[in-house]
């Protein structure tokens, strides 16, 4: 165990909500609309399907190996050396995702609000903040998430004020090109749910882990569909050309000539959401690195890892258009591999080995 | 020692107050030039001339309390360039403060530029992070910069006057975002409000007037192809379902005029494809109260009410039929987005025919069905200025 802290399943659920949505809600309507035209709001259905499968696999693995993280039980399942190799892949994936997340965070802030502030300053400040939180342990991340989640949810409810400007006609015709474009538009970012493999071992009530995760998944899908529908009904065919469609939603609100120019609210939820996302990802990356090196405590790694994250964020993409290409082409496969294929593969092997106990003992003597 | 530890959070707060001022993006109000309206024109050489109406902050007090003389409230500066952005960067050289867009809620585009192509120059307005998507866009008759020099007698500046007019919902008001969507929808034509400068009353200074929305500028393939008059615009607004708070005047049986207000209308477009024949039913439900009755008819008499409603219906139907007919045959410009209506109902047929919409649009058989109701007679029942004997029951 990397730490003594414990969180409740509910806290994990609350923490996962902004973690899943934070970056995705702002950027994905565009990519989804590029693939599926006016049907992109239906992607929620596939998100739910894909998410439930991931949650089932990860909670099942957790039941088989309680109090262990993905790094630990993968060693038990496929052996020490292959597991180290596999976990290096995951470590790389966590760092890469973190780099991409903070870069997206900073690109939005510099591109639309603080035009003249150097991007490095924005990158470093969020990583520093997250690093301090991560050093304090999972309990602190969970509690700060619980306090901050309202700031993430309230701005979204303000978008209801757009109601007079929405046109239902943009939704029609439904599925005129069949279901395939919707599948392409799904983008599989729900694969980020893999981080619960590192949070489930710290639950005080692990039996509720699945219920809490499913609850979060439902909330994420409902909120995602709500945002997608708002984008579609306000912007219609224009959704696919806006870099940040949700930003336009917030700017467009004008209610009774009084509630106007609400993009500052978006910045609030953006900073809060990205902070939680980065903190959770950062925590998972630190723990997995410590376990990869067989160390007792992850804390000494946090600050050096922060340096690496900032560097990764600059290495990941030279500019915004390269970022777009990555998220349209490589990202879905990355998510499918790390979120679904590898855990599924681990679960199948684990189940096979459970059924043949004699083979397990043979393998164990090998190590 | 403990006291020092207690003071630490305070020190932290002090330190963060220095750090949180966001040094790079700090802007002071007195470093900004607030733009209220931007006019974009084409120069004779084919470049762009942008003119900005900028608020003079010193002169914003209302006349009564301001002691020393009445100064102009806004100033106009203009400059040419290869495109909008180029012209604006040159314009900045003539303005000692940094141009600020947060209050710019009106974009006025000159007719000349609109005729050579709005499509190319629209990009700046949606790409630049500062202009607001909810800003209104207008096409001006003649050079757009003329409207910026006006000194409106009632409103603070001519931008405000245009914005208020667009919000009244009597004439067309189109935002940047709506224009951006219209440029991408199935039909390649759309309509924007067309602005002219109101002729000032005789006693007034020629500049003391406002720009006002006179008609509609029609666009096809992102270029302006013509303008519709005020009366024709009303027909367009009926079909676009923009009618709200609107007065309809008609002539029942040729015996004088009757006016209804406010007319509320609900317009539904129902497409139908039968074999090769494409047809469209415009069904309208309209209702209003009597505001003026110059005839001898008694509007509360149920029999006469039927006559009045029939006349109301005919008047609305005729107006809409004329309007659609003109778009189909004279302009061949689908500014109502019938294309989208067909696309939504018949996606497969639409995919097949979307290439030849130009030849298909004039052939669509349009029928107009109006259901009209007169709800209330107003404060008097029989014609107000007429002795009882003259009233026809």
Provide the descriptors you would attach to this structure in a database record.
heterodimer, A: 367 residues, mainly alpha, Amino acid/polyamine transporter I, two-stranded antiparallel sheet, 2 strands, disordered C terminus, B: 393 residues, alpha/beta, GMP Synthetase, Chain A, domain 3, 2 domains, 9-stranded mixed beta sheet, 4-stranded mixed beta sheet, Spore_GerAB (chain A), transmembrane helix (chain A), germination (chain A), transport (chain A)
Fold topology:
The complex is a heterodimer of chains A (367) and B (393).
Chain A: H1 9-21, H2 24-36, H3 43-64, H4 70-78, H5 80-112, H6 119-136, H7 138-158, H8 180-185, H9 196-199, H10 209-235, H11 245-252, E1 254-255, E2 259-260, H12 263-292, H13 302-316, H14 320-329, H15 331-355, H16 357-366
Antiparallel strand pairs in A: 1-2
Helix pairs in contact in A: 1-7, 1-10, 1-12, 3-10, 3-15, 4-5, 5-6, 5-12, 5-13, 6-12, 6-13, 7-12
Chain B: H1 2-19, E1 32-42, E2 48-55, E3 74-81, H2 84-92, E4 98-100, E5 106-110, H3 111-116, H4 119-127, E6 136-140, H5 158-167, H6 176-182, E7 189-197, E8 211-220, E9 223-228, H7 230-239, E10 248-250, E11 258-274, E12 277-293, H8 302-331, H9 338-345, H10 347-353, H11 357-360, E13 365-374
Parallel strand pairs in B: 1-4, 1-5, 5-6, 6-7, 12-13
Antiparallel strand pairs in B: 1-2, 2-3, 7-8, 8-9, 10-11, 11-12
Helix pairs in contact in B: 7-8, 9-10
Task: Give a short synopsis of this structure.
The complex is a heterodimer of chains A (367) and B (393). By secondary structure, chain A is an all-alpha fold. Chain A is built from 16 helices and two strands.
What this model shows, in words?
- The complex is a heterodimer of chains A (367) and B (393).
- Helices cover 72% and strands 1% of the residues of chain A.
- By secondary structure, chain A is mainly alpha-helical.
- Chain A has one domain (9-366): Amino acid/polyamine transporter I (Up-down Bundle).
- The relative contact order of chain A is 0.22.
- Chain B is an alpha/beta fold.
- Chain B has helices at residues 2-19, 84-92, 111-116, 119-127, 158-167, 176-182, 230-239, 302-331, 338-345, 347-353, 357-360, and strands at residues 32-42, 48-55, 74-81, 98-100, 106-110, 136-140, 189-197, 211-220, 223-228, 248-250, 258-274, 277-293, 365-374.
- The longest helix of chain B has 30 residues, at 302-331.
- Chains A and B meet through helix 11 of A and helix 6, helix 9 and helix 10 of B.
- Chain B: It is found in: Membrane.
- Chain B: It is a lipid-anchor.
- Chain B: InterPro entries: GerAC_N (IPR057336), Spore_GerAC-like (IPR008844), Spore_GerAC-like_C (IPR046953), Spore_GerAC_C_sf (IPR038501).
């Amino acid at each position: 165990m990397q730490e003594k802290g414990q969180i409740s399943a509910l806290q994990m659920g609350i923490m996962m909500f902004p973690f899943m949505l934070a970056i995705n809600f702002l950027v994905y309507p565009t990519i989804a609309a590029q693939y599926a035209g006016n049907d992109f709001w239906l992607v929620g259905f596939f998100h739910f399907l894909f998410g439930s499968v991931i949650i089932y696999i990860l909670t099942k693995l957790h039941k088989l190996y309680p109090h262990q993280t993905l790094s630990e039980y993968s060693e038990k399942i496929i052996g020490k050396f292959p597991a180290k190799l596999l976990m290096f892949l995951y470590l790389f994936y966590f760092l890469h995702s973190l780099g991409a997340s903070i870069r997206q965070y900073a690109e939005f802030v510099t591109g639309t609000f603080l035009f003249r502030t150097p991007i490095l300053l924005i990158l470093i400040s969020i990583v520093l903040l997250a690093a301090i939180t991560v050093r304090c342990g999972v309990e602190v991340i969970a509690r700060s998430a619980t306090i901050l989640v309202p700031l993430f949810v309230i701005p979204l409810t303000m978008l209801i004020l757009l109601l007079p400007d929405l046109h239902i006609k943009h939704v029609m015709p439904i599925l005129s090109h069949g279901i395939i474009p919707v599948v392409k538009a799904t983008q599989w970012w729900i694969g980020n749910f893999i981080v619960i493999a590192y949070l489930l071992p710290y639950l005080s009530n692990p039996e509720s882990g699945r219920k809490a995760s499913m609850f979060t998944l439902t909330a994420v899908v409902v909120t995602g569909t709500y945002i997608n529908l708002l984008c579609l009904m306000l912007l219609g065919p224009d959704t696919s050309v806006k870099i940040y469609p949700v930003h336009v939603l917030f700017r467009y609100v004008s209610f009774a000539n009084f509630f106007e120019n609400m993009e500052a609210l978006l910045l609030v939820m953006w900073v809060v959401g990205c902070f939680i996302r980065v903190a959770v990802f950062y925590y998972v990356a630190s723990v997995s690195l410590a376990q990869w090196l067989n160390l007792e405590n992850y804390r000494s790694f946090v600050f050096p890892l922060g340096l690496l994250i900032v560097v990764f964020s600059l290495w990941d993409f030279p500019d915004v258009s390269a970022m777009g290409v990555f998220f349209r082409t490589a990202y879905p496969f990355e998510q499918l591999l790390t979120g679904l294929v590898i855990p599924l593969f681990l679960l199948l092997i684990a189940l096979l080995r459970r059924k043949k106990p004699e083979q397990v003992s043979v393998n164990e003597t090998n190590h | 020692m403990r006291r020092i530890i207690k003071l630490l959070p305070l020190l932290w707060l002090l330190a963060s107050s220095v750090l949180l001022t966001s040094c790079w993006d700090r802007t002071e109000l007195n470093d900004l030039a607030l733009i209220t309206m931007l006019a974009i024109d084409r120069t004779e050489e084919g470049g762009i001339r942008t003119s900005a109406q900028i608020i003079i902050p010193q002169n914003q007090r209302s006349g009564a309390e301001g002691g020393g003389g009445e100064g102009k409230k806004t100033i106009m500066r203009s400059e040419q360039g290869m495109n909008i952005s180029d012209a604006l960067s040159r314009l900045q050289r003539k303005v000692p403060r940094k141009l600020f867009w947060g209050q710019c809620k009106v974009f006025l585009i000159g007719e000349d530029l609109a005729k050579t192509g709005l499509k190319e120059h629209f990009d700046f307005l949606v790409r630049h992070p500062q202009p607001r998507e909810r800003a209104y866009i207008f096409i001006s008759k003649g050079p757009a910069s003329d409207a910026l020099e006006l000194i409106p007698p009632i409103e603070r500046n001519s931008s405000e006057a245009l914005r208020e007019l667009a919000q009244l919902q009597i004439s067309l008001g189109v935002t940047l975002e709506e224009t951006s969507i219209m440029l991408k929808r199935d039909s390649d034509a759309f309509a924007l409000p067309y602005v002219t400068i109101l002729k000032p009353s005789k006693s007034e200074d020629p500049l003391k007037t406002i720009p006002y929305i006179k008609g509609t500028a029609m666009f096809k393939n992102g270029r302006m192809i013509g303008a519709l008059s005020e009366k024709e615009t009303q027909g367009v607004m009926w079909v676009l379902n923009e009618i709200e708070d609107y007065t309809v005047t008609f002539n029942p049986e040729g015996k004088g005029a009757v006016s209804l207000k406010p007319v509320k209308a609900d317009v539904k477009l129902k497409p139908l494809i039968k074999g090769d024949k494409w047809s469209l039913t415009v069904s309208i439900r309209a209702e209003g109260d009597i505001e003026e009755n110059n005839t001898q008819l008694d509007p509360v008499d149920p029999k006469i009410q039927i006559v009045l409603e029939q006349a109301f219906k005919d008047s609305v139907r005729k107006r809409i039929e004329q309007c659609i007919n003109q778009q189909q045959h004279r302009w061949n410009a689908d500014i109502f987005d019938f294309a989208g209506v067909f696309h939504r109902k018949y996606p497969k047929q639409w995919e097949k025919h979307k290439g030849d919409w130009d030849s298909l649009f004039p052939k669509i058989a349009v029928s107009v069905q109006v259901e009209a109701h007169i709800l209330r007679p107003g404060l008097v029942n029989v014609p107000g200025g007429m002795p009882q004997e003259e009233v026809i029951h």
